[in-house]
């Protein structure tokens, strides 16, 4: 039986009772600080006989039962894998008999609910796709399962990966650091769930900042990967020219371990011998040259102060830090270029995905708009109206086709221009990376219902240079404001420079150690 949010009140009780009747989960793992442990720590505990994957799954399920629908009610989970404990038990047995498949063997992972899973519904947070089972797993899910990872559940998100941090199917997502603040979108469920330690690792998707925004709002590490580095086969599309899958974790070590598993083996720029954990070097900042995009500061003095302290730590660790000025044409046009691709592609590509679903589900963007208008108030099953996303669908529906002159001009000329400019800038200046505050302000108060202009890429977003260029961008926590809200720094490099970004991030992480268990989800 599938566990969905529409019956989650009962489901969380079942999970909790399941925990109570599995007394082994209460084993005194005193050698392990559960909420601070890395995947390497979990593997060591399992190898030493202090922990099993079955116990680990139970421990995470207990946190979900206590904090997702009870307590602070973060509302991050849409589906729980009903076979998770059974799979963990089988993986424990396999590990004893033949060793582990990878460092993710028996490790739970949570996945954004726009990534296809054959054995659980994939809904994109929409009531219109409730209980929709895709024909097969997304490629990245198949890779995780082959590595022995346990997909523990599917996560709430901005509906169809755009708009505010809520969905019509599951409602609003809550920030575990401050229940009145936004967890950001569209991977807000992943950001909040990983910060709350519902799993050590998770997957988000990033089309215009949707991994990095929630990473910053929730104080975790998130990577917008080089476009094409991780396969997006089986992902509900927002705009395939920009869509990426990104690892999200509480530390750089776990992010590197997850990245090893999810990289597309067909990418020629990545060697079979590449291991991102080799970039976990404490001296990774030594002799690095870092370009600072100061333009993305100035909106909040606490963010700016923490950003400057991070730059100071980089210099103390042997890096050279230099100021970089971006031209006005790039800064002023980036939002327009983003939307010129994003709107036409969603209009076309969502219908390609919908065609793969069973009968009875919407098949066109017109169908989505029409069905969305049938919900004007909260329903008995918990479904809520989502006017912001539905209004945006109308804007998307008015976009030109992929044959439109504006789309083609931006796709064929503007995007290569931005990519070559940023690449040339970094090479000319001898830069290993560009850095900036992931968001120029801490997470703001939840604005529900959403009253913004609804146009992705508006408002001077720091994010979309990485999307427009296809370059990787790693967001990591660098500290907290006086009111306890996390602040993150972004590290952007050239295509396939993930090893360098991980070197820089890990070295800085060891200097500042800014990760924190949220006050609303303490250790149990």
Highest-level CATH class: Alpha Beta
The H/E string reads: EHHHEHEHEEEHEHEEHEHEHHHHEHEEH
Rg computed from alpha carbons, rounded to a whole number of angstroms: 22 Å
Share of residues in helices: 25-40%
What is the name of the CATH architecture?
Answer: Alpha-Beta Complex
Distance between the termini: 28 Å
Please tally the helical runs, counting DSSP H or I stretches of 4 or more residues: 15
Unreliable residue runs: 1-29, 448-453
Strand content: 5-15%
Q: What's the number of structural domains?
A: 1
Question: Characteristics of this structure?
Answer:
Amidase signature (AS) enzymes; disordered N terminus; alpha/beta; two-stranded antiparallel ribbon; 524 residues; 14 strands
Describe this structure in words.
It contains 15 helices and 14 strands. The protein has helices at residues 8-21, 39-47, 53-67, 84-98, 139-146, 188-195, 212-218, 252-262, 301-316, 328-354, 365-372, 387-397, 405-429, 464-469, 498-512; strands at residues 3-4, 77-80, 108-112, 150-155, 166-167, 171-172, 201-206, 221-224, 244-249, 289-293, 320-324, 433-437, 473-480, 486-492. Helix 1 (8-21) packs across helix 3 (53-67), helix 3 runs antiparallel to helix 4 and helix 10 packs across helix 13. With 524 residues, the protein is α/β, with parallel strands linked by helices. The two termini are 28 Å apart. It is globular, with a radius of gyration of 22 Å. The protein has one domain (3-512): Amidase signature (AS) domain (Amidase signature (AS) enzymes, Alpha-Beta Complex), CATH 3.90.1300.10. Strands 1-2-4-3-7-9-8-13-14-12-10-11 form a 12-stranded mixed beta sheet, sandwiched between helices. Helices cover 37% and strands 13% of the residues. Helix 9 (301-316) links the parallel strand 10 (289-293) and strand 11.
């Amino acid at each position: 039986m599938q566990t969905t949010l529409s019956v989650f009140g009962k489901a969380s009780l079942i999970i909790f009772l399941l925990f109570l009747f599995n007394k082994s989960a209460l084993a005194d793992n005193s050698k392990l600080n559960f909420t601070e442990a890395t995947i390497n720590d979990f593997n060591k505990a399992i190898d030493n006989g202090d922990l099993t994957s079955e116990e680990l799954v139970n421990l995470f399920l207990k946190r979900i039962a206590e904090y997702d629908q009870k307590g602070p009610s973060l509302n991050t989970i849409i589906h729980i894998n009903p076979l998770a404990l059974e799979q963990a038990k089988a993986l424990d047995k396999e590990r004893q008999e033949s060793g582990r498949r990878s460092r993710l063997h028996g490790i739970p992972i949570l996945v954004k609910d726009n990534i296809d899973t054959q054995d659980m519904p994939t809904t994109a947070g929409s009531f219109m796709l409730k209980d929709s089972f895709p024909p097969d797993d997304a490629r990245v899910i198949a890779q995780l399962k082959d590595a022995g990872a346990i997909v523990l559940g599917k996560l709430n998100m901005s509906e169809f990966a755009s708009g505010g941090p809520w969905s019509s199917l599951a409602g609003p997502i809550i920030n575990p650091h401050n229940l009145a603040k936004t967890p950001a979108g569209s991977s807000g469920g992943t950001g909040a769930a990983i910060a709350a330690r519902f799993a050590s690792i998770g997957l988000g998707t990033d089309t215009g900042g949707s991994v990095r925004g929630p990473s910053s709002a929730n104080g975790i590490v998130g990577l917008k990967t080089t476009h094409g580095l991780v396969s997006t086969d089986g992902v509900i599309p927002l705009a395939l020219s920009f869509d990426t899958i990104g690892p999200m974790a509480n530390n750089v070590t776990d992010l590197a371990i997850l990245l090893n598993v999810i990289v597309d083996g067909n990418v020629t720029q990545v060697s079979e011998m590449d291991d991102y954990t080799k970039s976990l070097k404490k001296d990774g900042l030594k002799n690095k040259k870092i370009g600072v995009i100061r333009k993305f500061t100035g909106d909040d003095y606490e963010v700016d102060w923490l950003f400057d302290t991070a730059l100071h730590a980089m210099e103390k660790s042997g890096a050279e830090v230099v100021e970089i000025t971006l031209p006005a044409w790039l800064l002023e046009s980036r939002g327009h270029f983003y939307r010129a691709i994003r709107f036409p592609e969603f209009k076309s590509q969502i219908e390609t995905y919908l065609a793969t679903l069973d009968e009875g589900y919407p098949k066109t963007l017109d169908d989505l708009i029409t069905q969305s208008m049938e919900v004007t108030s909260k329903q008995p099953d918990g479904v809520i109206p989502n006017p912001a996303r539905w209004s945006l669908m109308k804007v998307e529906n008015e976009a030109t086709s992929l044959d439109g002159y504006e789309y083609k001009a931006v796709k064929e000329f503007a995007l290569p221009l931005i990519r070559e400019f940023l690449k040339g800038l970094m090479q000319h200046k001898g830069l290993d990376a560009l850095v900036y505050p992931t968001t120029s302000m801490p997470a703001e108060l939840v604005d529900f219902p959403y009253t913004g202009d609804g146009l992705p890429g508006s408002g001077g977003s720091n994010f979309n240079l990485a999307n427009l260029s296809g370059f990787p961008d790693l967001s990591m926590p660098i500290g907290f404001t006086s009111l306890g809200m996390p602040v993150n720094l972004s590290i952007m490099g050239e295509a396939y420079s993930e090893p360098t970004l991980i070197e820089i991030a890990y070295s800085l992480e060891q200097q500042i150690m800014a990760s924190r268990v949220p006050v609303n989800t303490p250790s149990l």
